[in-house]
Amino acid sequence: MTCSLKIREINKLRGRALYIDKKECLYIARSYDIYRSDNGGSTWRLDCRLPSTGWKSWAARSRLAARLLRYYVAAFRVLDDGSRIAVAREGIFRAESGEQKMTLVFRLTRGSRPLNLAVDGHRVIFGEYGDGYGSSEVFVYVSEDYGRSFQVGYRFPRGDIRHVHNVLVDPYHNHYWVLVGDFGRQPGIGVLSKDMKYLDWICRGSQRCRAVGAVVEKDGLVYGTDSDRERNFILRMDRQSGRIEDLREVEGSSLYAARFGPVRLISTCVEPNPKCPSRECSLYASQNGTCWQRVSIHQKDRYHPTLFQFGTLVLPYASHESRRGMYSGQAVEGMDDHVALIDFHESEES
To answer: Is pTM, for the whole model, over 0.85?
Structure first.
Protein backbone atom coordinates (compact mmCIF):
# COMPACT_ATOMS: atom_id res chain seq x y z
CA MET A 1 0.00 0.00 0.00
CA THR A 2 1.46 3.35 -1.04
CA CYS A 3 0.27 6.85 -0.21
CA SER A 4 0.17 9.57 -2.85
CA LEU A 5 -0.81 13.22 -2.91
CA LYS A 6 -3.67 14.43 -5.06
CA ILE A 7 -4.20 18.06 -6.04
CA ARG A 8 -7.65 19.65 -6.29
CA GLU A 9 -8.31 22.96 -8.02
CA ILE A 10 -10.91 24.94 -6.09
CA ASN A 11 -11.18 28.09 -8.18
CA LYS A 12 -9.35 30.11 -10.82
CA LEU A 13 -9.18 33.90 -11.04
CA ARG A 14 -7.12 36.59 -12.72
CA GLY A 15 -3.86 37.61 -11.08
CA ARG A 16 -0.39 36.56 -9.95
CA ALA A 17 0.14 34.56 -6.73
CA LEU A 18 2.29 36.49 -4.23
CA TYR A 19 1.96 35.61 -0.56
CA ILE A 20 0.06 33.59 2.06
CA ASP A 21 0.48 34.67 5.69
CA LYS A 22 0.21 32.63 8.88
CA LYS A 23 -3.54 33.33 9.13
CA GLU A 24 -4.00 32.07 5.55
CA CYS A 25 -4.74 35.52 4.14
CA LEU A 26 -4.06 35.39 0.40
CA TYR A 27 -2.37 38.15 -1.59
CA ILE A 28 -2.36 38.39 -5.38
CA ALA A 29 -1.33 41.07 -7.87
CA ARG A 30 -3.29 42.38 -10.82
CA SER A 31 -0.82 44.57 -12.67
CA TYR A 32 0.47 46.92 -9.92
CA ASP A 33 -2.61 46.51 -7.68
CA ILE A 34 -2.33 44.03 -4.80
CA TYR A 35 -5.50 42.36 -3.52
CA ARG A 36 -6.11 40.48 -0.29
CA SER A 37 -8.60 37.76 0.65
CA ASP A 38 -9.32 36.84 4.28
CA ASN A 39 -11.75 34.03 3.45
CA GLY A 40 -9.85 31.61 1.27
CA GLY A 41 -10.40 33.49 -1.97
CA SER A 42 -14.18 33.91 -1.83
CA THR A 43 -13.95 37.70 -1.81
CA TRP A 44 -11.12 40.14 -2.48
CA ARG A 45 -10.37 43.75 -1.60
CA LEU A 46 -7.63 46.15 -2.67
CA ASP A 47 -4.86 46.06 -0.08
CA CYS A 48 -2.26 48.37 -1.62
CA ARG A 49 -1.02 49.57 -5.00
CA LEU A 50 2.25 50.57 -6.57
CA PRO A 51 2.32 53.88 -8.48
CA SER A 52 1.29 53.44 -12.12
CA THR A 53 1.39 56.42 -14.48
CA GLY A 54 2.49 57.14 -18.05
CA TRP A 55 3.66 54.07 -19.96
CA LYS A 56 2.78 51.86 -16.98
CA SER A 57 -0.90 52.71 -17.37
CA TRP A 58 -0.67 51.68 -21.02
CA ALA A 59 1.17 48.47 -20.18
CA ALA A 60 -1.46 47.60 -17.59
CA ARG A 61 -4.08 47.47 -20.35
CA SER A 62 -2.08 45.04 -22.49
CA ARG A 63 -0.97 41.68 -21.14
CA LEU A 64 1.61 41.21 -23.92
CA ALA A 65 3.05 44.68 -23.27
CA ALA A 66 3.28 43.87 -19.56
CA ARG A 67 5.13 40.65 -20.36
CA LEU A 68 7.48 42.34 -22.82
CA LEU A 69 8.32 45.16 -20.37
CA ARG A 70 8.40 42.85 -17.29
CA TYR A 71 5.70 45.01 -15.73
CA TYR A 72 4.57 42.98 -12.73
CA VAL A 73 5.07 42.55 -8.98
CA ALA A 74 7.83 39.96 -8.59
CA ALA A 75 7.76 39.51 -4.80
CA PHE A 76 5.66 40.72 -1.87
CA ARG A 77 5.70 40.32 1.91
CA VAL A 78 3.81 41.61 4.94
CA LEU A 79 6.08 42.44 7.88
CA ASP A 80 5.44 42.02 11.61
CA ASP A 81 4.55 45.70 12.02
CA GLY A 82 1.89 45.46 9.31
CA SER A 83 3.90 47.28 6.66
CA ARG A 84 3.97 45.80 3.16
CA ILE A 85 6.99 45.55 0.86
CA ALA A 86 7.15 44.63 -2.81
CA VAL A 87 9.62 44.17 -5.66
CA ALA A 88 8.83 45.56 -9.11
CA ARG A 89 10.78 46.65 -12.16
CA GLU A 90 11.91 49.96 -10.65
CA GLY A 91 13.01 48.63 -7.28
CA ILE A 92 11.64 48.11 -3.77
CA PHE A 93 8.28 49.63 -2.77
CA ARG A 94 6.78 49.94 0.70
CA ALA A 95 3.57 50.98 2.45
CA GLU A 96 2.99 51.53 6.16
CA SER A 97 0.33 49.51 7.96
CA GLY A 98 -3.08 50.74 6.83
CA GLU A 99 -1.76 52.70 3.86
CA GLN A 100 -2.85 51.76 0.35
CA LYS A 101 -0.29 53.78 -1.61
CA MET A 102 3.14 52.18 -1.85
CA THR A 103 6.20 54.39 -2.35
CA LEU A 104 9.59 53.64 -3.87
CA VAL A 105 12.16 53.22 -1.06
CA PHE A 106 15.04 51.72 -3.06
CA ARG A 107 15.57 52.61 -6.70
CA LEU A 108 17.59 50.18 -8.79
CA THR A 109 20.63 51.72 -10.44
CA ARG A 110 22.48 48.51 -11.41
CA GLY A 111 21.15 45.39 -13.08
CA SER A 112 17.48 44.43 -12.93
CA ARG A 113 15.02 43.90 -10.09
CA PRO A 114 15.88 41.28 -7.46
CA LEU A 115 14.07 37.98 -7.76
CA ASN A 116 13.12 37.55 -4.11
CA LEU A 117 12.84 39.13 -0.67
CA ALA A 118 13.75 37.60 2.69
CA VAL A 119 12.11 38.81 5.90
CA ASP A 120 13.61 38.09 9.32
CA GLY A 121 11.64 40.03 11.94
CA HIS A 122 12.44 43.70 11.44
CA ARG A 123 15.01 42.80 8.77
CA VAL A 124 14.39 42.77 5.03
CA ILE A 125 17.13 41.28 2.82
CA PHE A 126 17.60 40.93 -0.91
CA GLY A 127 20.42 40.09 -3.26
CA GLU A 128 21.47 42.17 -6.23
CA TYR A 129 20.55 40.85 -9.65
CA GLY A 130 23.34 42.68 -11.45
CA ASP A 131 25.47 41.88 -14.46
CA GLY A 132 28.29 40.34 -12.41
CA TYR A 133 30.53 39.76 -15.42
CA GLY A 134 33.60 41.01 -13.60
CA SER A 135 32.80 44.72 -13.88
CA SER A 136 31.73 45.24 -10.27
CA GLU A 137 31.07 43.68 -6.91
CA VAL A 138 27.66 42.13 -6.26
CA PHE A 139 25.83 43.13 -3.09
CA VAL A 140 23.41 41.69 -0.56
CA TYR A 141 21.32 44.54 0.84
CA VAL A 142 19.74 44.62 4.28
CA SER A 143 17.22 46.85 6.02
CA GLU A 144 17.16 47.02 9.81
CA ASP A 145 14.05 49.24 9.98
CA TYR A 146 11.24 47.22 8.38
CA GLY A 147 12.22 48.16 4.85
CA ARG A 148 12.36 51.93 5.23
CA SER A 149 16.03 52.11 4.22
CA PHE A 150 18.66 49.69 2.88
CA GLN A 151 22.43 49.35 3.22
CA VAL A 152 24.98 46.94 1.79
CA GLY A 153 25.22 43.97 4.15
CA TYR A 154 27.60 41.70 2.25
CA ARG A 155 29.83 42.16 -0.83
CA PHE A 156 30.78 39.44 -3.27
CA PRO A 157 34.19 40.20 -4.81
CA ARG A 158 34.39 41.46 -8.37
CA GLY A 159 33.92 38.58 -10.82
CA ASP A 160 33.09 36.05 -8.10
CA ILE A 161 29.42 35.56 -9.01
CA ARG A 162 27.06 36.80 -11.70
CA HIS A 163 24.16 37.69 -9.41
CA VAL A 164 22.21 36.64 -6.32
CA HIS A 165 19.14 34.48 -6.92
CA ASN A 166 17.80 34.29 -3.40
CA VAL A 167 18.44 34.75 0.31
CA LEU A 168 16.53 32.38 2.59
CA VAL A 169 16.00 32.58 6.34
CA ASP A 170 16.86 29.29 8.06
CA PRO A 171 14.38 28.77 10.94
CA TYR A 172 16.45 25.91 12.37
CA HIS A 173 19.92 27.47 12.47
CA ASN A 174 21.33 30.91 13.07
CA HIS A 175 22.20 31.83 9.49
CA TYR A 176 20.85 32.65 6.03
CA TRP A 177 21.08 30.55 2.90
CA VAL A 178 22.40 32.41 -0.16
CA LEU A 179 21.83 31.05 -3.68
CA VAL A 180 23.89 32.55 -6.52
CA GLY A 181 24.53 31.99 -10.24
CA ASP A 182 25.27 31.30 -12.99
CA PHE A 183 28.17 29.76 -15.00
CA GLY A 184 31.55 28.09 -14.49
CA ARG A 185 32.68 28.55 -10.89
CA GLN A 186 30.01 31.21 -10.22
CA PRO A 187 26.96 29.15 -9.16
CA GLY A 188 26.85 28.19 -5.51
CA ILE A 189 24.93 27.70 -2.29
CA GLY A 190 26.39 29.16 0.88
CA VAL A 191 25.47 30.02 4.45
CA LEU A 192 25.77 33.65 5.52
CA SER A 193 26.15 34.55 9.20
CA LYS A 194 23.44 36.70 10.79
CA ASP A 195 25.91 39.56 11.21
CA MET A 196 26.68 39.22 7.47
CA LYS A 197 30.41 39.06 8.03
CA TYR A 198 31.07 35.47 7.02
CA LEU A 199 29.89 33.31 4.11
CA ASP A 200 30.79 29.63 3.89
CA TRP A 201 30.19 27.79 0.62
CA ILE A 202 28.43 24.43 0.94
CA CYS A 203 28.43 23.79 -2.81
CA ARG A 204 30.22 25.71 -5.55
CA GLY A 205 31.04 25.70 -9.25
CA SER A 206 28.46 23.27 -10.61
CA GLN A 207 25.07 23.54 -12.34
CA ARG A 208 23.87 21.13 -9.64
CA CYS A 209 24.15 23.96 -7.13
CA ARG A 210 22.58 26.58 -9.39
CA ALA A 211 19.23 27.25 -7.71
CA VAL A 212 16.68 30.04 -7.29
CA GLY A 213 13.95 28.63 -5.00
CA ALA A 214 14.45 26.07 -2.24
CA VAL A 215 12.62 24.43 0.64
CA VAL A 216 14.59 24.79 3.87
CA GLU A 217 14.71 21.57 5.90
CA LYS A 218 16.37 21.02 9.28
CA ASP A 219 19.21 19.04 7.69
CA GLY A 220 19.64 21.08 4.50
CA LEU A 221 17.88 22.23 1.35
CA VAL A 222 15.61 20.65 -1.24
CA TYR A 223 15.53 22.48 -4.57
CA GLY A 224 15.10 22.24 -8.31
CA THR A 225 18.11 23.16 -10.41
CA ASP A 226 18.02 26.26 -12.62
CA SER A 227 20.17 25.20 -15.55
CA ASP A 228 19.71 26.37 -19.14
CA ARG A 229 22.42 24.02 -20.45
CA GLU A 230 22.20 20.76 -18.50
CA ARG A 231 19.45 18.36 -17.43
CA ASN A 232 17.51 19.51 -14.40
CA PHE A 233 16.70 17.65 -11.18
CA ILE A 234 15.05 18.00 -7.82
CA LEU A 235 17.91 17.57 -5.36
CA ARG A 236 18.51 17.34 -1.64
CA MET A 237 21.68 18.94 -0.26
CA ASP A 238 22.95 17.93 3.18
CA ARG A 239 23.85 20.94 5.31
CA GLN A 240 26.77 19.32 7.13
CA SER A 241 28.52 17.36 4.40
CA GLY A 242 27.42 19.25 1.29
CA ARG A 243 26.47 15.90 -0.28
CA ILE A 244 23.87 16.26 -3.05
CA GLU A 245 21.33 13.50 -3.70
CA ASP A 246 19.20 13.18 -6.85
CA LEU A 247 15.51 12.85 -5.95
CA ARG A 248 14.06 12.91 -9.47
CA GLU A 249 14.73 14.34 -12.90
CA VAL A 250 12.39 17.08 -14.11
CA GLU A 251 11.65 18.47 -17.55
CA GLY A 252 12.87 22.03 -17.04
CA SER A 253 14.63 24.57 -14.86
CA SER A 254 13.07 25.69 -11.58
CA LEU A 255 12.51 29.18 -10.19
CA TYR A 256 10.04 28.61 -7.34
CA ALA A 257 9.67 26.48 -4.23
CA ALA A 258 7.17 26.75 -1.38
CA ARG A 259 5.59 24.90 1.51
CA PHE A 260 1.85 24.69 2.17
CA GLY A 261 1.82 23.23 5.66
CA PRO A 262 3.30 19.71 5.36
CA VAL A 263 3.28 19.78 1.55
CA ARG A 264 6.48 20.91 -0.17
CA LEU A 265 6.15 22.29 -3.70
CA ILE A 266 8.62 22.90 -6.54
CA SER A 267 7.63 24.20 -9.97
CA THR A 268 9.43 24.10 -13.30
CA CYS A 269 9.50 26.43 -16.29
CA VAL A 270 9.92 26.23 -20.07
CA GLU A 271 13.32 27.77 -20.83
CA PRO A 272 15.36 27.24 -24.01
CA ASN A 273 17.75 24.39 -23.18
CA PRO A 274 19.30 21.92 -25.66
CA LYS A 275 19.27 19.17 -23.00
CA CYS A 276 15.62 19.80 -21.99
CA PRO A 277 13.55 20.62 -25.10
CA SER A 278 10.19 20.16 -23.36
CA ARG A 279 7.35 22.71 -23.74
CA GLU A 280 5.78 21.56 -20.47
CA CYS A 281 6.08 23.17 -17.06
CA SER A 282 4.89 21.34 -13.99
CA LEU A 283 4.10 21.45 -10.31
CA TYR A 284 5.77 18.80 -8.12
CA ALA A 285 4.62 17.99 -4.58
CA SER A 286 6.03 16.01 -1.65
CA GLN A 287 5.00 15.31 1.92
CA ASN A 288 8.41 14.18 3.15
CA GLY A 289 10.80 16.13 0.94
CA THR A 290 12.13 12.91 -0.60
CA CYS A 291 9.40 11.41 -2.79
CA TRP A 292 8.19 13.93 -5.38
CA GLN A 293 5.08 13.60 -7.55
CA ARG A 294 4.18 15.52 -10.69
CA VAL A 295 0.71 16.78 -9.81
CA SER A 296 -0.03 19.43 -12.45
CA ILE A 297 1.22 19.92 -16.04
CA HIS A 298 0.87 22.99 -18.27
CA GLN A 299 1.97 23.93 -21.78
CA LYS A 300 4.00 26.97 -22.84
CA ASP A 301 1.90 29.40 -24.90
CA ARG A 302 2.74 30.38 -28.48
CA TYR A 303 4.64 33.58 -27.73
CA HIS A 304 8.44 33.92 -27.90
CA PRO A 305 9.98 32.75 -24.58
CA THR A 306 12.77 35.33 -24.38
CA LEU A 307 10.70 38.36 -25.40
CA PHE A 308 7.44 37.37 -23.74
CA GLN A 309 8.74 35.33 -20.77
CA PHE A 310 9.39 31.68 -20.07
CA GLY A 311 6.43 29.45 -19.35
CA THR A 312 6.44 29.32 -15.56
CA LEU A 313 4.29 28.18 -12.65
CA VAL A 314 4.65 30.84 -9.98
CA LEU A 315 4.52 29.84 -6.31
CA PRO A 316 3.87 32.37 -3.52
CA TYR A 317 5.90 32.77 -0.36
CA ALA A 318 3.85 30.95 2.27
CA SER A 319 4.03 30.52 6.04
CA HIS A 320 0.71 28.84 6.89
CA GLU A 321 0.05 25.34 8.24
CA SER A 322 -2.73 23.92 6.03
CA ARG A 323 -2.60 21.97 2.78
CA ARG A 324 -4.45 24.73 0.94
CA GLY A 325 -2.67 27.26 -1.22
CA MET A 326 -2.38 28.72 -4.70
CA TYR A 327 -0.13 29.07 -7.70
CA SER A 328 -0.30 31.12 -10.90
CA GLY A 329 0.75 30.79 -14.51
CA GLN A 330 3.05 32.96 -16.56
CA ALA A 331 3.20 32.49 -20.34
CA VAL A 332 1.32 29.18 -20.15
CA GLU A 333 -1.79 28.16 -22.08
CA GLY A 334 -5.03 28.80 -20.21
CA MET A 335 -3.26 30.04 -17.06
CA ASP A 336 -1.31 33.15 -18.06
CA ASP A 337 -1.91 35.83 -15.41
CA HIS A 338 -4.35 33.57 -13.59
CA VAL A 339 -4.27 32.13 -10.08
CA ALA A 340 -5.44 28.62 -9.21
CA LEU A 341 -6.63 28.09 -5.63
CA ILE A 342 -5.79 24.51 -4.66
CA ASP A 343 -5.67 21.97 -1.88
CA PHE A 344 -4.07 18.56 -1.39
CA HIS A 345 -5.32 15.30 0.03
CA GLU A 346 -3.91 11.80 0.43
CA SER A 347 -5.11 8.95 -1.70
CA GLU A 348 -4.54 5.31 -0.78
CA GLU A 349 -3.47 3.16 -3.74
CA SER A 350 -2.81 -0.55 -3.70
So the answer is: yes
